[in-house]
Amino acid sequence: MIKLSRKITLNVNGKNYEVLCEAGENLRDVLREKLGFLGVKKGCDFGGCGACTVIIDDNAVYSCMTWAYKAEGKKITTIEGLSSGRPLHPVQEAFIALSASQCGYCTPGIVMSALALLNKNPKPSFEEIKEALAGNMCRCTGYVRYIKAIVNACKNLKKFE
Amino acid sequence: MPELGYFAPDEYLKPNSIEEVVNLLQRYGDKARIVAGGTALYELAKRGMIPQVKKMIDLEYLNLRYVRSDEEGIKIGCMVKIYELANSPILDIHPYYSIKEAALNIRPVQIRNMATVGGEICSAIPFLDLPTVFLALDAKLRIIGPKGERKIDMDGFYFDYFLTSLGNGEFVIEVMIPKLPDKTGSAFLKFERTAVDLPLVNVGVSLMNKNGECKNVRIALGGGRTHVRIKSLERALEGKRFNDKILDDIVQSLSDEFKPISSAHASTEYKLEIAKILLRDALLIAYKRSQGD
Ligand SMILES: Cc1cc2nc3c(=O)[nH]c(=O)nc-3n(C[C@H](O)[C@H](O)[C@H](O)COP(=O)(O)OP(=O)(O)OC[C@H]3O[C@@H](n4cnc5c(N)ncnc54)[C@H](O)[C@@H]3O)c2cc1C
Questions:
Q1: How is domain B64-178 classified at the CATH fold level?
Q2: Is the pLDDT of residue A160 over 80?
Q3: B207 in Cβ contact with B237 (< 8 Å)
Q4: pTM for the full model?
Q5: Does the domain formed by A90-160 have CATH 2.60.120.260?
Q6: d(CA B287, ligand 1 centre) in Å
Q7: What CATH number belongs to A5-76?
Q8: Residue B20 contacts A, CB cutoff 8 Å
Q9: B53-104 tens-digit pLDDT
Q10: Where are the domains of chain A?
Q11: Cα B76–chain centre separation
Q12: At the top level of CATH, which class does the domain B184-290 belong to?
């Protein structure tokens, strides 16, 4: 049996980080407070608001409800991994073009949910987009612009690669 | 219930054999908790409900993530994620389609990506969706413990809210749905306030159609103190042909057999009325499916 010491290695945005973790810590706190990925937001803290959404091995998950130790050995992607040192991702471009966000707090989580969807399904229907965003709350603008922006983003996905 | 308090486990263990899990569970008793998807556990921890837990035991490193079909029926490993059920082609055939229906309607997608079949069952939260659908399909649970393996009917697994028949050192490794005859139809329906909310009540049914008569009727509901089968209604429908009168009678008698728990969201009476409507609709859908539609 592997008995874990308290130092674990997390792969975030393609880079390995060694970090001291307690058994009861969640991934969101480790990402934010120990590794400085402040794009991962803290919202409801009970799985539901979606502000803390990250992608683990191709799937959108809540980082608040993900135990840090569970994320070991997996590929974690946060909003910071999207465009650091590169042009903005088409989803981000489209959000800006349509002024889809207002206060912006929910935006990183929504981008991550959209990205997880588009990676699997580059031409989603309106319904499929709604389904993918069901776990992300926005309390300023509503969702219509976000959805429209994601539809627009699909047209530019190819260019990004 | 233990006193409320801060969650401060000292070890997160990743055993890679079933024996190790049993040993750990036995050694640490109440101080150990299994982590499957970890989502319900997180809520319990946050609410201060499991301060006694010191050892977290993750089942992810055992080989318990499979959906298979063989001559006995369909076998689902406890670590299968909800999205994997929703995507499984094995569940596309009629008798089992309600499993897929339930899985697809658990929202949000983040939870489908994290929560597991074992976690849905062993949380013993009486309004979760998968237990209802499994009960209505006569599911059996494979349980491993210090004395080896036992296989039980899922009916009887729940004693109360948060309370199952799992003994010290035991855990669930697999759900088995017995092979159902061809002309079996099943259905699952639930009622929730919003698309991402937990359901207030849910209903699972299955039945076989023998020349227009109902056989092997199973009716399960979630939203009471535990998930339950309503056997008196199953018997009342056995051997009968569907008509409005029978359906009305069945649905009316639900009042005597099912008592949803009242909550901040809705009263017992309200949930019962909803349950009646869901039951009627679910029976009609299952019947239609049993005809091959
Ligand atoms: C916002 C939100 C919405 C949700 N909506 C729904 C919904 O609509 N319908 C629905 O059905 N569910 C829904 N859920 C999921 C549900 O509430 C639970 O969180 C989920 O089912 C738990 O699964 P898990 O794998 O994460 O379990 P865990 O949290 O890992 O485990 C739960 C409990 O079961 C025990 N356990 C787990 N596996 C085993 C095993 N194999 N043997 C013995 N014990 C075990 C653990 O020790 C723990 O006590 C929702 C959750 C959230 C956060």
A1: 3.30.465
A2: no
A3: yes
A4: 0.96
A5: no
A6: 31
A7: 3.10.20.30
A8: yes
A9: 999 999 999 999 999 999 999 999 999 999 999 999 999 988 899 999 999 9
A10: 5-76, 90-160
A11: 12
A12: alpha beta
